[in-house]
Amino acid sequence: MRFRINPNNILTENIYEVVDVLKHNGVIIYPTDSVYALGCSLQSPKAIEKIARLKKSDPDKINLSIICADLGQLSDYTRPLPNTIFRIMKKALPGPYTFILPASSAVPKLFLKENKKTIGIRVPDNAVCTEIVKILGCPLVSTSLHNPDDDLVDYYTDPENLYRHYKDTVDAFIDGGYGNIYPTTIVDCTGEEPVVTREGLGSLDVLS
User: By Cβ atoms counted within 10 A, which residue in 56, 83, 85, 123 is the most buried?
Assistant: First the structure.
């Protein structure tokens, strides 16, 4: 199932169709403000396990993030944050950043196997992501479609290539135009000071 959705002119009926796929344990490919990503509902253990298989990773070890619609929703899935960290996130989001934060008890145990206590949080600057999460009513579980070390990274920016390769693998594909070549900047906020563990599309100026 393929949906061509212009982030600047979103048809709500298309978003409702995508959400219906997600509510039935579906896995989607969708655009973000960085690279294209694999996603599913946070409330769907079956779909989370399917994403792990698609990434050829152990479900216990795969690094997944969740996509929130805004900072208000983010607070439901993390423990209380220091004011310094919240100010940084307020400057950075929405935007191409992944913040590693202490997870709250609202995050399903399946998502935090092996007693993992942290969660990657994203609020992309992309209207398609925002609308999906708002209508779904819970975050998307998300992981970048490509490996940042892959020499074929250009391949993953072209929606035509992606659709041809994955159309029989995922339950829905959202074509939002060409994706970005660069992944998010990852900031670990679980220690005393924020630490950049991967420099990507997001500027480091937000940390100053």
Answer: 123
How does DSSP assign 36-84, residue by residue?
Answer: -EEEEETT-HHHHHHHHHHTT--TTT---EEE-SSHHHHTTSBPPPPHH
Work out the angle at residue 11's Cα, subtended by the Cα atoms of residues 6 and 13, and round it to the nearest 5 degrees. Answer: 140
Q: Is the overall model pTM greater than 0.85, yes or no?
A: yes
Distance between first and last Cα of the chain: 44
In this structure, are residues 91 and 100 in contact, taking their beta carbons and an 8 Å threshold? no
Phi and psi (nearest 5°) for 141? -80, 135
6 secondary structure, DSSP code: B
Q: Domains in the chain, please, with CATH?
A: 2-207 (3.90.870.10)
Q: Which residues of the chain have pLDDT under 50?
A: none
